[in-house]
Amino acid sequence: MAQALVTGATGFVGANLVRLLLEQGHEVKVLVRPHSSLRNLTGLPVQRVTGNLLSPELPQYLAGCDVLFHVAAHYSLWQKDKDQLYQANVLGTRHILQAAKLAGVPRTVYTSSVAAIGVGTGGQAVDETHQSPVDKLIGDYKKSKYWGEQEALQAAQSGQDVVIVNPTTPIGAWDGKPTPTGEIILRFLRGQMPAYVNTGLNFIPVQDVAWGHLFAWQKGQSGQRYILGHRNLSLQEFLQKLAQITGLPAPGWQIPVQIPLAVAWVDEMLLGAWGKTPSLALDGVRMAQQTMYYDASRAIRELGLPQTDLDQAIREAVDWFRQQGMA
Questions:
Q1: CA 227, CA 275: separation in Å to the nearest integer?
Q2: How far is residue 107's CA from residue 46's CA, in Å, rounded to a whole number?
Q3: Distances 241 to 46, 195, 233, 238, 288 between C-alpha atoms, Å
Q4: Which residues have C-beta within 8 Å of that of residue 87, sequence separation ≥ 6?
C-alpha cells in the first residue's frame, strides 16, 4: 500500500484515477479548492486537503506521500482566460513540483496533454518524438500545456523523478463538467447536433487513461513522455458509433469550417467584447481545422497501456450522462 496525493481529483480523469488507486489498495489524499464541487468524490474514502496549486501548505500536504499525481489543469478555449491558464498550468505546475521536491516525494506523474505535442501534417499520426513549434500551437490552452510540460521536463533534468503522460481524448463516466467531447455526446443525445465539421481525434476509454497513470508511476522513465491513446477516428466515424450504440440518428450534414469560424469570431470577438457570454470559442473551431491523430505505441509497449474496446467506453459515457439526468 502506498499513499498518493492527487490534484484534479474532482475532474474527469482525476475521479477515475482516484477510484483505480483505491481499488488497488492505496491510500489517497486529494487536493481540492475551497469551492470545488465534490460530487465526483462522494462516498469515497479519501483524505481531503484544501488549497490550490499555489498554496504555501503544499509541502506539508505532500509530506509522507509515495507519489504525486498532478492531474489538475485549467481548461478554457476562451481568449480572455490567457492569464488564468498561465497561472494554473505553468506557474501552478512549477510550484507543486517544487513542493514535491521539498517534501521528498519519490516520484511525480505529471498529466500533460497531446495538446502540448501538436499535430502532424496531412492527418499523420504522431508519437512522443514529435513537437510542433510552440507558436504553431492553436490557442492559449495548448500553449500553456506546452509550457507546463517544459516545467516538468526541467524538473526531471535537474534530477527530480517526474514521468509525463499525454492523454488524448478520454471517453467514459464521471465527465461532470463536461469535457468538450462530453459536450459532443450530450448534444448528440439531446438532438442538438444537426451538422458536424470534418475533423479527427484520437479517443481512449478514461479507465485506460487511469491505468496509464498507474503504470507510469510503476514503470515509466523519468523525463519521458507517454501518449495515452487508442483509436484515431474522424468525427463522422465517432458520431456513427454513437448512432449505432444509442439508436439515434447521426447528423448527415457536413458543414465547411468557415461557417462556425465566422459565427465564433462574431460571438467571441464582437458580442463577447460587449459583455455577452459567447457560446462558441474561436480557438475551438480553429483546432477543428486540424486532424489530431496520435500513436500510443510507446505507452502500450513500455507501460502496458490497456486498449479497451472504445464502444464500451462510449456506452458507459452515454449511460452515465443519462443516469445523471444530463441527457
A1: 39
A2: 20
A3: 36, 16, 10, 5, 19
A4: 54, 74
Residue 33: domain span = 3-176+202-234+294-313
Residue 165 placed within a domain: yes
Does residue 252 sit in helix, strand or coil? coil
pLDDT tens, position by position, 241-264: 999 999 999 998 786 666 656 665
Residue 38 has pLDDT above 70, yes or no: yes
Exposure class string for 53-69: b at 16+ Cβ within 10 A, else e: bebeebbebbeebebbb
Q: Is residue 320, in this structure, part of any structural domain at all?
A: no
Model confidence over 212-234: pLDDT tens digits? 999 999 999 999 999 999 999 99
Given the C-alpha cell 506523474, which residue does it identify?
109
Q: Structural domain tally of the chain?
A: 1
| pLDDT 10s digits, 118-147 | 999 988 999 999 999 999 999 899 999 999
